[in-house]
């Protein structure tokens, strides 16, 4: 009888101990059951080094460090503007078993998507996801394991910007990299808007950095104004474009980094802000608060008309009202 009583007492004590352990464990977990001290591995694949992409990467890292302090290990890789290297980087992330991939620019995103259908992938500095993945009638959600943020500024407003500055121009040269699908999309769309305003437009495509100078010179010789979309190869070659165009022909740019390097004016977004938004999306995905398959692509909340004082001085032009000067470094 005493042995039975002792066994019952011991069993009761064990039950209380387990209950207490379970209670304290619940205090150190998030609502989704993810431990507060879990460390996430995040791979960052950036196509190339330039101001816009660098700012997006910094915003992404700052957001995750703020939302998940001490819980994220970043593996940053730069492809040096080589799509084949983007594929190698993506494969290495899959082999390493990262928890999430951030792909900065369209070729990096496409390479990551080809490498895995399981690891969540967030793009940033990607102009048009429907174009990047050949999705007809794109609704704003890619689905599967892909989402992200877009750097697209309204293309009709970019065309209107040119008319506001140079209403008497006749010919517009559209300078871009033919190997960037989103660049082709932008120049095709802007061309439609410009032609509806009465301008004559010609596309001048370079295939890579090696022929930027020759193609730019031809465009400058045959145009009153040049337009350069959000284009990573152009962004990496602004000194070349500037050397040909400064003081001779105005260049309008799809984003501030290109405008700062060789342009007169732009309709600008903050790449840091879209990178930060991508980081917020990543935190939700990593902690189980959001399902990437239903997460729509996010866009910049605001656009600012900016001009480059150095280029305006070289051309002897005064910006229209409502333009903000790009800050000198």
Short description:
The protein has 329 residues and is of the alpha/beta class. Helices cover 46% and strands 19% of the residues.
Helix-strand blueprint:
Elements: H1 2-27, E1 40-46, H2 51-67, E2 72-78, H3 83-96, E3 100-104, H4 106-115, E4 121-126, H5 129-132, E5 146-150, H6 155-165, E6 171-177, H7 181-196, E7 200-206, H8 212-221, E8 225-228, H9 232-235, H10 238-245, E9 251-253, H11 256-262, E10 265-268, H12 271-286, E11 298-299, E12 304-307, H13 309-315, E13 324-325
Parallel strand pairs: 1-2, 1-3, 3-4, 4-5, 5-11, 6-7, 6-8, 8-9, 9-10, 12-13
Antiparallel strand pairs: 10-12
Helix pairs in contact: 2-12, 3-4, 6-7, 8-10
Describe the overall structure.
- By secondary structure, the protein is of the alpha/beta class.
- Helices cover 46% and strands 19% of the residues.
- The chain has a seven-stranded mixed β-sheet, sandwiched between helices. It has a six-stranded parallel β-sheet with strand order 2-1-3-4-5-11, sandwiched between helices.
- Residues 1-31 have low confidence and may be disordered.
**Per the principal axes of the C-alpha atoms, what is the gross shape?**
elongated
Described by strand count, sense and barrel closure, the largest sheet is: 7 strands, mixed
Major β-sheet strand ordering: 7-6-8-9-10-12-13
Global structural class: alpha/beta
Count of strand segments: 13
Helix fraction by DSSP (H/I, runs of at least 4): 40-55%
Tell me the distance between the termini.
87 Å
Radius of gyration: 25 Å
Mean pLDDT: 90
Q: Helix segment count?
A: 13
The secondary-structure element order is HEHEHEHEHEHEHEHEHHEHEHEEHE
Low-confidence stretches: 1-31
Strand content is: 15-25%
